[in-house]
Description:
This protein is of the alpha/beta class. The protein contains 7 helices and 26 strands.
Amino acid sequence: MSDCGCDSKHTLRGLKSPEEALELLLAGVRPVTETEEVAIAEAMGRVLAEPQASRVDVPPWDNSAMDGYAVNSADLVGITPRLPVSQRIPAGAAGSQLEPGTAARIFTGAPVPPGADTVVIQEVCTQDGDAVIIKESPAAGANIRRAGEDAREGDLTLEPGIRLGPQHLGQAASVGIDRVPVYRRLKVALFSSGDELVMPGNPLGPGQIYNSNEFTLAGLLQGLGCEVINLGVVEDTFDATCEALTRGAEQADLVVTSGGVSVGEEDHIKPAVEKLGAIDMWKIAIRPGKPVAYGHIAGTPFIGAPGNPVSLFVTFCLFARPFILKSQGVTGAVSPVPVMAKADFDWAKPDKRREFARARLELDEQGQARVSVFRSRSSGMLSSLTWANGLAVIPEQQTLAQGDNVQFIPFSELLT
């Protein structure tokens, strides 16, 4: 997690700082090693397992960067040149040797014919029957993309350990790669804990609520390209919790749960994990989301997120997401990159814990990026996440006034 301008070693009694918590999590990652080969059309979001080299020069020949006329620059010397047009070269065709003292009509991407060393853009040319009048002469070599300027055959094109995006797939295709080796998908088992949870579409009984966490958590995992094993809602008993944890650990590379990680009599996750394995971390000095459990069940990593929906979302994005990315084989940075903006709010009361406030980044009338925060700090209001487009980072023991600089983590840095 990036530096927030606060003491990364400052902790409350029994609570880890966000930096300490993330360091502990990432130290326990065991990346998947099994690979498979997939077509690039199916490789979006997968993690590349081996380096990829270009199979061709890109571009394979000198080509025109603009629509215009291919000429020999020596023919442009003197008064306004008028050159006969000796051939026409569209993209996908190859021209012949350029006759001295002539021009070739050429289009973007078409090979520059032998004998030409410059392309004159059509905007400075006028057609005159079968000839072209060139009103402005560019420098020799202008408007030509040189062979191999993007990649040479054998050049390293894609590094292993990257999560493939549209730009990587396009790059692979451009150098002739049609299939790539990727790490297999990470298998993640999830379940929600709570007798009060009811699936949408069913009527609510007394004291019941709809199970939003299952869909939030499954969506977050799917956005990261995980293979989701959904174990559903588990009743609030110790035995049922142990059975679900055991089943998840047997089927998956990681078990993630929501709810049941606090200290109430109906919170069975922590004692169940301790019976089946071990808890290595329990609380983090952040708001929302202080109770976050991390440990293992018979060797399978376990992350237990809070039951409050906003706390679940925030803690998953800040801690589970980096853990999952590294587990998938990503070798580069896995923490979100914040941006700086001006606060459009006052934060008058300092907190002992670091706050990740639901926030919205917008441009004011002067084009200045400004951050506003949601009207409530309640961790039960999912509407705050649909209103927000990121999180404002409020360092512990700090106040803010309108106009102060504040770190903002956009959701685009947290959800993929």
